[in-house]
């Protein structure tokens, strides 16, 4: 019976044996990295296969049969199939730049056919970095792209492309698999195939009113042809604070505080017997070795007819303060089916669900006096001294521990799309897509009541003065539906190559939000410290008379018509032109539609006959573009349709009837802002493509700024104002192979940027936001205040200087500069004291591969910007802890000409001035990675196709001049670069592995 079964199985397998066997191998580049998407063709058997993400393949062929391996950007090779695991090396093609395909708006194109500035970031640049938001991993990689990080788990970075172009919005448009998005924090870095950063008018005009801030196109991974492939990668990292602000200890504090009291005419502090601790409040609340854990699993299978991909991810990220934890689960599902030779359909969904952390900050720990112990002998939290900040600062540890896990917030997001692509005739295809973005957030919170100990009175008092527990609850729903219908026609005849696009886009968005609060009954039982009770209708604990609810809602829609032509003649002369007409429901009918367009041209000089005999240049491309982009962002929705607000009341008989008036004067002529953008550039590849170099000059001028004018008696929106951003970008790389075992690469980029506000509304009109100002002739968000010209050293010095009307002052106080030269110091002497926009942004990378080992280092930095230190300045009248720099304060003539005397009771030294300005320049070792790829021959006897181990260090060293945790400080378009001392950027050391089965 057993022999019969063996014979039967042999007969079944005979056809497969006669036609070939499973030939396995890996296709790698010059540095030994796997090449995904390479095509393998068996010349005799006519079978084909495609490499997976790690370059592995399996093909049915005969031993000894010739296999042809090809990949865009590499020279094709032919090798004989062997029964052993094959390792096939492809060399980069001489004209790689001309064959490289990039994703552009509503399609793809060869880079050779483009006239604009588009940078492609490959998956390997971001996949193995421990960043919950994938965009963070691109910092320092792309010229013109500014990313300012926040160390808080789950918080978005500040992202700007080629400067700040508007006063209401800075972030670029994200396009994820075709759908417009506001961010990509919902994505898993391991599910990203590539990112394209679009920067100039030639590439952005196709996005019309959304293109002014730049566009980042994100493409999710798709399955490749071949057998089923399973990939798993995981890492664990440990986060710590590396640069801690220097604050006085208890002994130093006592010295400075008593001196301050003496300067204010007060006796030394008399309660040191009660407050004799030496507490470092940062150490009390920080979470040492906070962990960040990632798990990613993907399954893919592709055939000629169907391609399926599933990706799952999980991140658990602890904050640098105790009890902060961010959890994020992501998924990516897509499936494409070739129904017939002419029809292809597909569906895809990206999404995530997250548990958001209850975030705190370190601000109070920088201010709280060190002489207070966190708890008293009975374990009760101590209140800060009544005379030293108790009214302004709560016990930092009590704020973190006493309120731990009292805010439960969740966020869910689904990005889905379905498409059908029909090939109508040769070269002409139609693609229709329906895309949606559904985002939901909700949360419940609780404010507990607990006591703190007041040492001066030996009594207990409610923390923060809060005697009643209360509950808050909110729910927000956002939906976006998008429809795209596009015709694309590609035709090559003779030396002419052109691609035409014509399309229609419809977008609908709506938002609904509800929120409310309720307090316990006065004198009643507190609402339980149990999340089961944290709802607005909490019964019987919630007092209905204190219940308050509010709502917010809006919706809008737009339609767009678009067209584009990509043309090149003989690969030498290239022209790109784009047009988009956008219509928005948020503007009045008369101004609802606006047109945006661009035109670009390029000349590849290497293709000319007179360059044929030269051997230096592989590419020499001169390019330029000009166009009009749009910006639809404003401070409110429907700025052309003002809402009503309460006004004066009227009395009719015995009834008082409230009146309602428009919140501001209507202006039916409002339009969206327009950005005139142009650039000129050069792209070069030299020395057998080992050296690459690109440079560009860009200019972006925003006109008709959407400006809210508040004149007191009259308020209205109008189109007025102008902002200019201009600069140069430089990108260079060198790649070389020493021998078969050793290769290396060096790359870098730099961007110069000059931002200036040309006008705001009318001459002299200014917009203030704290120390930041929007005013003509200066960079947007400039810091505004007084110039410190030293410290008064004596009364004679005071009398010899220009008199000041800014307040009481004397020896030891700041000597403010008479900026306007009128012989007196007053508010007219305020001037621009700092620019938060860097003059230069740069990044560079070094990498080397030796056999199975690889090492890479990434650096990133900025130069020429200023930071406004918004902590440790004595900026309030309450006495707080001191920066250690205050130990160098003025104590008499000649002792200091920068640090003023200690006198926080006076506001004279607390005015916004150059004393608060710090150098924002820094250089950061952004990432170091050491990796080992196991040899394929070692793995061939296992079920593992590839295995990579890596050790990663992120932000280990920063060279900076600021006194806070980090020199990075984002913010709003007109108020950024302010260091509040709130949260550090962590250094992360992680270890991980990546395995493919």
UniProtKB/TrEMBL annotation:
Membrane topology: Multi-pass membrane protein
Biological-process GO terms, alphabetical: iron ion transport
Residues of the TonB-dependent receptor plug domain: 110-215
Signal peptide feature range: 1-18
Domain TonB-dependent receptor-like beta-barrel: 444-952
Coiled coil spans: none
Keyword annotations of the record: Cell outer membrane, Ion transport, Iron, Iron transport, Membrane, Signal, TonB box, Transmembrane, Transmembrane beta strand, Transport
Gene Ontology CC entries for this record: cell outer membrane
Keyword Ion transport: yes
Domain of life: Bacteria
Primary site of residence: membrane
Cell compartment(s), UniProt: Cell outer membrane
PANTHER family cross-referenced by the UniProt entry: FERRICHROME IRON RECEPTOR-RELATED, TONB-DEPENDENT OUTER MEMBRANE RECEPTOR
Family: Belongs to the TonB-dependent receptor family.
Identification of the protein by name: TonB-linked outer membrane protein, SusC/RagA family
Biological source species: Flavobacterium fluvii
């Amino acid at each position: 019976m057993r022999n019969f079964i063996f014979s039967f199985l042999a007969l079944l397998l005979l056809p497969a044996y006669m036609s070939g066997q499973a030939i396995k191998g890996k296709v790698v580049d010059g540095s030994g990295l796997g090449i995904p998407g390479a095509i393998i063709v068996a010349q005799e058997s006519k079978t084909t296969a495609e490499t997976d993400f790690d370059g592995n393949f399996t093909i049915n062929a005969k031993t000894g049969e010739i296999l042809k391996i090809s990949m865009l950007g590499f020279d094709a090779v032919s090798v004989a199939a062997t029964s052993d695991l094959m390792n096939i090396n492809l060399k980069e093609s001489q004209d790689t730049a001309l064959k490289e395909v990039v994703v552009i708006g509503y399609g793809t194109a060869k880079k050779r056919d483009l006239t604009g500035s588009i940078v492609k970031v490959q998956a390997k640049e971001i996949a193995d970095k421990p960043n919950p938001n994938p965009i963070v991993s691109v910092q320092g990689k792309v010229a013109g792209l500014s990313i300012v990080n926040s160390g808080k788990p789950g918080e978005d970075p500040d992202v700007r492309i080629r400067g700040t172009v508007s006063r209401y919005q800075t972030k670029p448009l994200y396009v994820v698999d075709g759908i417009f998005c506001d961010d990509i924090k919902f994505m898993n870095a391991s599910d990203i195939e590539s990112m394209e950063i679009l920067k100039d008018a030639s590439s952005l005009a196709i996005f019309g009113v959304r293109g002014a801030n730049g566009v980042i196109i994100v493409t999710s991974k798709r399955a490749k042809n071949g057998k089923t492939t399973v990939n798993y990668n995981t890492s664990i990292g440990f986060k710590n604070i590396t640069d801690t602000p220097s604050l006085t200890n208890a002994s130093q504090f006592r010295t400075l505080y008593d001196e301050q009291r003496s300067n204010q005419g007060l006796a030394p502090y008399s309660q040191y017997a009660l407050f004799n601790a030496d507490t470092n409040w940062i150490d009390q609340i920080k979470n040492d070795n906070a962990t960040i854990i990632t798990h990613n699993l993907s399954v893919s299978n592709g055939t000629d007819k169907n391609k399926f991909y599933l990706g799952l991810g999980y991140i658990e990220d602890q904050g640098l303060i105790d009890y902060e934890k961010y959890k994020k689960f992501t998924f990516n599902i897509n499936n494409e089916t070739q129904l017939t030779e002419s029809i292809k359909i597909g569906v895809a969904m990206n999404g995530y669900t997250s548990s958001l952390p209850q975030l705190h900050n370190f601000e109070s720990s920088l201010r709280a006096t060190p002489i207070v112990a966190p708890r008293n002998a009975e374990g009760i939290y101590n209140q800060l001294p009544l005379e030293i900040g108790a009214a302004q600062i709560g016990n930092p540890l009590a704020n973190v521990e006493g309120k731990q896990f009292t805010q439960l917030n969740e966020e869910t997001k689904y990005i889905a799309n379905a498409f059908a692509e029909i090939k109508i005739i040769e070269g002409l295809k139609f693609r229709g897509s329906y895309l949606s973005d559904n985002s939901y957030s909700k949360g419940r919170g609780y404010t507990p009541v607990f006591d703190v100990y007041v040492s001066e009175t030996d009594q207990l008092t409610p923390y923060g003065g809060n005697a009643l527990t209360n509950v808050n609850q909110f729910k927000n729903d956002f939906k976006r539906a998008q429809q795209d219908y596009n015709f694309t026609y590609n035709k090559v005849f003779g030396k002419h190559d052109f691609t035409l696009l014509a399309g229609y886009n419809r977008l609908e968005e709506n938002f609904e939000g509800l929120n409310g609060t309720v307090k316990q009954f006065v004198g009643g039982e507190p609402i339980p410290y149990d999340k089961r009770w944290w709802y607005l209708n909490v019964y019987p604990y919630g007092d209905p008379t204190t219940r308050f609810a509010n709502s917010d809602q809006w919706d809008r829609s737009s339609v767009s018509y678009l067209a584009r032509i990509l043309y090149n003649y003989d690969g030498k002369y290239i022209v790109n032109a784009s047009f988009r007409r956008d219509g928005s429901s948020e503007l009045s009918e008369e101004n609802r539609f606006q047109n945006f367009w661009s035109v670009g041209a390029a000349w590849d000089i290497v293709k000319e006959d007179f360059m044929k005999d030269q051997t230096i240049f592989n590419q020499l491309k001169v390019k330029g573009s000009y166009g009009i982009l749009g910006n639809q962002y404003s401070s409110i929705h429907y700025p052309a349709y003002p809402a009503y607000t309460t006004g004066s009341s009227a009395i009719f008989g015995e009834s008082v009837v409230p009146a309602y008036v428009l919140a501001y004067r209507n202006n039916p002529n409002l339009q969206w802002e327009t950005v005139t953008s142009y650039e000129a550039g050069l792209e070069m590849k030299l020395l057998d493509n080992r050296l690459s170099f690109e440079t560009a000059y860009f200019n972006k001028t925003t006109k008709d700024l959407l400006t809210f004018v508040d004149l007191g008696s009259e308020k209205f929106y109008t189109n007025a104002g102008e902002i200019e951003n201009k600069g140069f970008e430089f990108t260079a790389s060198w790649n070389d192979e020493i021998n078969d075992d050793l290769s290396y690469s060096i790359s870098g980029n730099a961007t110069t940027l000059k931002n200036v506000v040309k006008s705001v509304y009318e001459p002299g009109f200014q917009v203030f936001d704290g120390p930041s100002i929007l005013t003509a002739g200066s960079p947007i968000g400039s810091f505004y205040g007084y110039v410190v010209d030293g410290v008064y050293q004596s009364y004679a010095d005071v009398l010899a200087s220009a008199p000041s009307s800014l307040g009481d002052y004397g020896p030891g106080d700041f000597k403010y500069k008479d900026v306007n030269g009128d012989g007196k110091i007053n508010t007219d002497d305020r001037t621009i004291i700092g620019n938060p926009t860097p003059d230069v942004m740069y990044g560079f990378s070094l990498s080397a591969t030796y056999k199975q080992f690889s090492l890479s280092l990434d650096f990133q930095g900025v130069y020429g910007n200023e930071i406004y230190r918004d902590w440790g300045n004595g900026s309030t009248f309450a006495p707080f802890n001191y920066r250690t720099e205050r130990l160098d304060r003025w104590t008499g003539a000649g002792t200091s000409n920068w640090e003023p005397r200690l006198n926080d009771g006076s506001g004279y030294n607390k005015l916004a001035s150059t004393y608060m300005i710090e150098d924002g320049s820094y250089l950061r070792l952004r990432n170091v990675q050491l990796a080992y790829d196991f040899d394929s021959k070692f793995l061939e006897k296992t079920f593992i196709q590839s295995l990579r181990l890596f050790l990663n260090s992120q932000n280990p060293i920063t060279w900076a001049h600021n006194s806070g945790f980090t020199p990075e400080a984002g913010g709003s378009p007109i108020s950024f670069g302010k260091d509040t001392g709130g949260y550090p950027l962590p250094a992360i050391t992680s270890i991980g592995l990546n395995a493919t089965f």
